[in-house]
Design brief:
heterodimer, A: alpha/beta, OB fold (Dihydrolipoamide Acetyltransferase, E2P), seven-stranded mixed β-sheet, elongated, B: 651 residues, alpha+beta, six-stranded antiparallel β-sheet, four-stranded antiparallel β-sheet, 11 strands, Cyt_c_biogenesis (chain B), cell membrane (chain B)
């Protein structure tokens, strides 16, 4: 191979590799993008019914119940304008509790209850998922919790 | 007092990084030996003051001086001494100071180990490193000073994040940083070569050990992080495709590509400008990783209290470093022509494919990691890219990469005929196919084609990695460290693939509820909860359960998973009970009380999971062996540096 051929081969291989990668990535995106919706969006019917998405908000006080002796849990998510009912079977994260911001991933059930496959709560009690903070801000309610202490 | 001294030392360290940069670059440019000598002194001074500053911060932590804001935020009088030291890099400000210390140490190492390099080269490298140090020192002083006072002093501290109170995690950041920052050395070499307008195989020989050592630290750092996530985050996964993990993985992939392209540059004088570009990219991705983690554009366990000012600073710094380096590259790259040719089937071609595939993998991860941020920045939908994307996409470049590895290791430079190795590679492939199908089916049952494909690739690579050292050893030929290192690292990759494939194919996981006295069957084991009790640690209270695991009536293990509540931060923390065995882990984590004495439990069976970290450790070992090769220490004169075209088959 002459240097020119080699360079051509190198460049075309890289273009092919990167181009192929981008093409693959774009098609894979179609299937694996997770959209985030606020409880208000869900109530307004903006969320899809046929695919997995994420919904986030605060867990209102008194909304959490567990079917006795089972791993089935029910709770609600709110952005202080609308609530969405959620059900989840399994172990909840350590920081899951009422009054805490959480994100649930799953799909809408036919009865209007969101069936979560995964529930995320963050490892910092001051933390609020940014999506939740933003959708709460939109509702002009309750200020987002501030960062860590101390007031200097 | 110590805090003020530390702060002052930090300012001095910043001031000394400026002459390091100026005299290093200017001294080399105008050929002033005195200036170059001055730059070397500045490196030592910069290191001493950075170390002193770091020691001051460690001291105030040890003294529980809660009048220092950073200590008050990240320590507590009940925190064990060991973790009080580790808390120094437990949050943003201190970890940057650690970063600066590591940066200074790399500069010092360049001074110490550059005896075989021309003074001008060393001087330019130190100059560039000085600029980077100056940038980071300024970053700390302007946006993230760890020595700020808190008035009035807090009566006690807020404690270190309980997640970080763990031995693996105390050494994870230093290792990771050493790797990240280590890539600044090849970066500096690249800039120096472009400034000098000369890049020969001697240059590649100087850079190779630095790139390899940085890569080795990054490997260890990532593996430790993965191991920690496995047992401490509580849910038994070893890789989550979290943006922060990706941020550390991208420089690793590019670093791997760099190591391989440097081999071609050293041995054959090929891929010169490509090597330069990879050197620049590896460090740029390290900086990008820092930006992602520190700016708050992404949220994760690692994202400390975010501050837009910090993000802006790092972004500008990234822009300046990358912009300047790429500008220089655009100007100088045409100088670096290589004239050597090679046949379509040759080691060069395999290295080229290796690079293309690794860069493609990096691009895929980069797209998936940054896409949600761009969507957000442009005010479009809020999206996230889930692990299924990464899992599916990553295999596309990686499978061919692994299958090309076995012949690639045995391809000769220039033109490969595989005359002597054709037979053994064929036999190994057949053995790998038989074992790759038989072992999983016999041990665990049929699970699909991909499991077998993964194992076949791993067995073939493992076998092929051993061929060269064994045949050399049997024939009594010399066995240079670089060959041992290469074989060991590739063998480590195979071990890793065995672990990752097996655990992803055959893991079994269930959530259930248990009361003391009850038991449950899972993955052929019987898990019996015998008791639940309260226990107390130095700074936490915990509910601990005892779970006895039996198989066919015989006791296998007793584990004690805990649910901890740390006294200060009040966070609940899951401490998994793990019975580790070389070929499987049994993993029990406590969920929450369900009433009437019952608890939700997560039980997991993880076959071969240890091989993942064992493989990474072996890879790192290969790196350190290769970096110790004798030819890197030899003093070489410029004339000797012509690549020997016949080329002993070293890589």
């Amino acid at each position: 191979m002459t240097p020119r051929h080699r360079r051509m081969a190198l460049v075309s291989l890289i273009v092919l590799g990167v181009g192929g990668a981008v093409a693959f990535a774009l098609t894979a995106f179609q299937d694996n993008l997770l959209y985030f919706y606020s409880p208000s969006d869900v109530t307004a019917g903006k969320a899809p019914t046929d695919r997995v998405f994420r919904v986030g908000g605060m867990v209102p006080e008194g909304s959490f119940t567990r079917e006795p002796g089972s791993l089935m849990a029910h709770f609600e998510l709110t952005d202080y304008a609308h609530n969405v009912k959620v059900s989840y079977t399994g172990v909840l994260p350590d920081l899951f509790r009422e009054g805490q911001g959480v994100i649930a991933r799953g799909r809408m059930g036919p009865d209007g209850v969101f069936v979560a496959e995964e529930v995320l709560a963050k490892h910092d009690e001051n933390y609020m998922p940014p999506e939740v903070a933003k959708s709460l801000k939109k509702q002009h309610e309750k200020p987002t919790p501030t960062g860590p202490l101390p007031s200097t | 007092m110590a805090a003020e001294l530390g702060h002052f030392a930090l300012i001095l360290a910043f001031c000394l990084s400026l002459p390091q940069a100026f005299f290093g670059l200017a001294g080399a440019h105008w050929r002033r030996p005195h200036w170059i000598a001055l730059a070397n002194r500045a490196v030592a001074g910069h290191w001493v003051f950075t170390l002193f500053s770091f020691a001051c911060l460690a001291y105030v932590f040890n003294q529980n001086d809660f009048s220092v804001l950073y200590v008050a935020q990240n320590s507590n009088s009940e925190l064990p001494t060991f973790y009080r030291f580790a808390a120094v890099w437990g949050a943003h400000e201190g970890s940057l100071l650690l970063w600066l210390l590591v940066q200074a140490t790399w500069s010092l190492a360049v001074v110490a180990f550059s005896g075989n390099m021309p003074q001008q080269m060393t001087s330019r490298v130190l100059g560039v490193l000085g600029l980077i140090s100056a940038g980071f020192a300024l970053f700390i002083l302007m946006t993230s000073n760890p020595f700020l006072r808190l008035w009035p002093a807090a009566p006690d501290g807020r404690d270190l994040n309980p997640l970080l109170q763990d031995p693996a995690l105390t050494i994870h950041p230093p290792m990771l940083y050493t790797g990240y920052v280590g890539f600044s050395v090849p970066f500096a070499f690249a800039v120096a070569a472009m400034l000098e307008g000369k890049l020969d195989s001697l240059w590649a020989r100087w850079v190779r050990p630095w790139a390899t050592v940085a890569w080795m630290f990054l490997t260890i750092g990532i593996a430790l992080g993965s191991w920690w996530a496995y047992y401490e985050l509580g849910w038994g996964g070893w890789w989550f495709w979290d943006p922060v993990e990706n941020a550390s993985f991208m420089p690793w992939l590019i670093g791997t590509a760099l190591i391989h392209s440097l081999a071609a540059t050293e041995k054959r004088g090929l891929f010169k400008s490509w090597t330069l570009l990879l050197s620049i990219t590896a460090f740029s991705l390290s900086l990008l990783g820092t930006f992602l983690v520190r700016s708050g554009v992404i949220e994760s366990v690692h994202a400390f209290a975010s501050d837009p000012g910090r993000g802006l600073f790092i972004l500008s710094f990234l822009g300046i470093c990358v912009g300047a380096a790429l500008g220089l590259y655009a100007w100088r790259a045409p100088l670096f022509r290589s004239n050597a040719g090679f046949a379509p089937v040759s080691r060069e071609t395999f290295l080229l494919l290796n690079n293309v595939l690794l860069v493609a993998a990096t691009a895929l991860i980069l797209i998936g990691t940054t896409y949600p941020m761009f969507m957000d920045a442009f005010g479009l939908d809020k999206v996230s890219v889930g692990p299924p994307y990464f899992e599916a996409m990553f295999l596309v470049p990686m499978l061919p990469l692994v299958f090309l590895l076995a012949p690639g290791m045995h391809a000769a430079w220039k033109k490969a005929s595989f005359e002597s190795t054709k037979k053994i590679l064929g036999i190994l492939l057949i053995v790998a196919v038989v074992l790759g199908i038989a072992i999983p089916v016999v041990a665990y049952g049929w699970n699909g084609v991909m499991t077998c494909v993964g194992l076949i690739a791993a067995f073939w690579v493992a076998g092929a990695a051993l061929v060269d050292p064994i045949s050399r050893w049997r024939k009594g030929h010399s066995l240079p460290a670089s060959i041992i290192g290469m074989s060991v690292a590739h063998f480590g990759l195979a071990v890793f693939i065995v672990g990752a494939t097996t655990v992803e194919s055959y893991k079994e996981e269930t959530d259930l509820s248990l009361k003391p006295g009850q038991s449950a069957q899972h993955a052929g084991f019987e898990f019996t909860m015998t008791k639940i009790e309260d226990v107390a640690g130095p700074n936490y209270e915990a509910v601990q359960s005892e779970v006895v695991i039996t198989r066919d009536g015989e006791q296998v293990a007793v584990v004690h998973p805990q649910k901890r509540v740390y006294r200060v931060q009040k966070n609940a923390m899951t401490e998994a009970g793990i019975d580790a065995h070389w070929h499987r882990d049994l993993f029990v984590a406590m969920g929450e009380p369900l009433g009437e004495g019952a608890w939700s439990l997560r039980l997991q069976y993880k076959p071969m999971v240890r091989f993942i970290w064992l493989g990474a450790a072996i890879m790192a070992l290969g790196g350190i062996i290769a970096a110790c090769d004798r030819r890197y220490r030899k003093r070489v004169t410029a004339n000797e540096g012509v690549p020997d075209a016949a080329g002993a088959k070293t890589a």
